[in-house]
Amino acid sequence: MKKYVLVWAALAVCMLAAVGFIKMERQSGEDLYGAIIAGLGDNEQFALLEFGEGQQVLLTSDLTYDYGNGNNAAIYCNACICVDGKAYYALGSIESMGTAYPVSYSKGRLYAASGHSVSVYTFDMENRQWVTTQYEETFDENGTPFYYRITTGTLSNQNIGTRAKEAVSEADFLAVQEEYGSAAVVSFGYGADNS
């Protein structure tokens, strides 16, 4: 329990600093992430990813598993990004539905999935917010498939924008599934050498 309190306390301080409630000197992303990483518990691992536009995303998880090739993958993690070395934006948790669907990333996107959905997480630099786009496959009582895309703007895991749901084609759904399948599985590790 102590590890969660430390991680969430660090997240809270960074979020308050980001919105101006606590004045902090300009820090590098490494400095901000270093405080969070230092507060991780013994069983928690992290991954630091290049996320485009010179930004890095920090992912943390205490639920990793051996994905092969010496990599530890996760189906559940928390994500945050440091923008301009001073402002910190937490996405909150990302969760896939089973070890067959590890959290993955590619080209400024994080992914989580299940057998009938793919969630894509991006960071909108202009509006300083996380955007979640979920593609879903559902079936009616006759087994006829329907496909939807649900897009939500988020900041610190709270809706701040309109939740838009629209029908998409099967081709759209299959394209995002292929995109997820081609993405790199996030490799989590411990400590400074991330091993």
Task: Please give a structural write-up.
Helix 1 runs antiparallel to helix 2. Helices cover 21% and strands 44% of the residues. It is α+β, with helices and mostly antiparallel strands and 195 residues long. The strands form three sheets. Strands 7, 8, 9, 10, 11, 12, 13 and 14 form an eight-stranded antiparallel β-sheet that branches.
Topology (SSEs and partners):
Elements: H1 2-18, H2 29-38, E1 45-50, E2 56-61, E3 64-68, E4 71-74, E5 76-83, E6 87-95, E7 104-106, E8 109-114, E9 117-124, E10 129-139, E11 145-155, E12 158-159, E13 164-167, H3 170-182, E14 184-185
Antiparallel strand pairs: 1-2, 2-5, 3-4, 5-6, 7-8, 7-14, 8-9, 9-10, 10-11, 11-12, 11-13
Helix pairs in contact: 1-2
Search tags:
195 residues; alpha+beta; 8-stranded antiparallel sheet; 4-stranded antiparallel sheet; 14 strands; 21% helix
Ends: how far apart? 24 Å
Question: How large is the radius of gyration?
Answer: 17 Å
Query: What number is the mean pLDDT?
Result: 79
Structural class: alpha+beta
Shape: globular
Number of helices: 3
Proportion of residues in helical segments: 10-25%
Series of H and E elements: HHEEEEEEEEEEEEEHE
Low-confidence region ranges: 1-29, 155-160
- Beta-strand proportion: 35-45%
Quick one: biggest sheet? 8 strands, antiparallel
Number of strands: 14
Give a brief rundown of this model.
This protein has 195 residues and is an alpha+beta fold. The protein contains three helices and 14 strands. α1 runs antiparallel to α2.
